[in-house]
Amino acid sequence: MTNETNLRLIKKYPNRRLYDTQTSMYITLADVKQLVLDEQTFRVVDAKTNENLTRSILLQISFEEESIGAPIFSHEMLLQIIRFYGHPMQEMVGNYLQKNLQAFIDIQNTFTEQLKDIYDSNISADMWSQFINMQAPLMQTMMTGYLEQSKNLFIQMQTQIRDQAKDMFDTLTLQPQLDANQEN
């Protein structure tokens, strides 16, 4: 997924400092956040062991962002996420959240592009922000509908899996009885 030739390497030293090998400068978490916002591809590695630390740095940035301003994750959502760690459905939940977030981003990008095509560059950045903020209730309603549909499909899938498991286990428990009856 990442292009290795454009990959920016950041080394983390034992003193917790981050060193950007592309710019030959020490950087902060705020600088790494800006790389994310600029959609730069990068990897953070331990300077001694070369262990990939990118995920832990991204989690650290998320933690800091969640600690200030309006958080994305509610208290209840964090509890639910923690409960899925070690659960047999952990990977499925992660994939589900990732795909839904990507769907949200795709919808948002399509919406933005369509409006840009309509209004071109006649709208200032401030006017654009105001317009998007006014659209928040509409987007919330659309996303609620989307999530409700997604929930219903997930429930249908669980029902099908349960029914298939029941059929499989019923067959497995009947098989020894059938084998015993055939021997007699």
Strand content: 5-15%
Radius of gyration: 24 Å
The first-to-last residue Cα distance is 61 Å
Q: Would you count the extended β strands for me?
A: 4
Major sheet characteristics: 4 strands, mixed
Please report the number of helical segments.
Answer: 6
Residue stretches low in confidence (pLDDT < 50, at least 5 long) are none
Measured as a percent range, the helix fraction is: 55-70%
Query: What number is the mean pLDDT?
Result: 84
SSE topology string? EEEHEHHHHH
Q: What structural category arises from helix and sheet content?
A: alpha+beta
How does this structure look, described?
A hairpin with a 4-residue loop joins strand 2 and strand 3. The chain has six helices and four strands, in the order E-E-E-H-E-H-H-H-H-H. The chain has a domain of 64 residues. The radius of gyration is 24 Å and the shape is flat. It has 184 residues and is an alpha+beta fold. Helices cover 66% and strands 9% of the residues. Helix 1 crosses helix 2. A four-stranded mixed beta sheet has the order 3-2-1-4. The longest helix is centred in the C-terminal third of the chain and has 48 residues.
